[in-house]
Amino acid sequence: MRRRCHSQKKQLANSKQHSAKETEMNRETKIKWGPCCFCGKQIEDGEHDPCRVTVETSNSKWQVWFCHAHCFKLLIKDDLGLEPAHF
Question: 3-class SS at 47?
Answer without folding.
Answer: coil
